[in-house]
Amino acid sequence: MTMLDGRRVYTRGDLMERYGLGRSTLEKLYREQDVNGHPEAVGSVGSQLAWDAEEWDRWYAARQTGRKVPAGLVTRDELSDRYGLSRHALKKLWSERESNGHPDAAHQVGKALYWNEEEWAAWYAGHQERSATADDPDAGDPDALVTLAEAARLLGLAQSSVTVYVKRPPAGWPEPVRQETLGGGRVRRLYRRGDVLAYGETSGRAVRRRRSP
After folding, report:
1. Domain boundary residue, one of 68, 101, 120
2. Which of 68, 97, 120 lies at the terminal end of a domain, its last residue?
3. CATH number of the domain residue 149 falls in
4. Residue 40 and which of 86, 93, 150, 183 are 20 to 30 A apart at CA?
5. Sheet with strand 187-192: strands edge to edge
6. Which residues pair with 17 in a beta bridge?
7. Each residue of 73-104: pLDDT tens digit?
8. 37 is in which domain, residue-wise?
């Protein structure tokens, strides 16, 4: 994944790999942007021009189908951005769809797959709950206490993502119900499982509302 100023971008090399297009074709599309509406480059990565990935995906999908991608559909990269999962993790979930019930793609343009976000989010919430129950004998108890690392696992987030919550908690993040002092001045914070899951459900709905067209 190529990044520029904190956002995903494509270089021509990225586009050649992702869409199987030749360099000359990509150069021609860009030269004819006044006619075809090709997005403007947003900067450079080294010596290569770069385009906003989401904008380019949508432009190309519309060009291929002759219409815009239906509202409510998202790519794997958009799922990664919105739910904090890596592309590798999302590809693994997709590859295991026969056993985990992952939703089918709702739309495809070239190699790009699109999923109904509402359907995917509902499935993922259930998948997280099932995974937590399988791994933890106390998973059914909302009053059970979990560490910050366990809270991250319940929410499907990397542990590093929630470490900053201690000093900069996002809206709705629960207060720990108990704190234990460990050796070396470290502190173990314990959270009520039900509070963590409630935060995950609320924050997921908030993300979907913000992203809705």
Report:
1. 68
2. 68
3. 1.10.1660
4. 86
5. 145-146, 187-192, 178-181
6. none
7. 888 878 887 877 888 888 889 998 888 889 99
8. 1-68
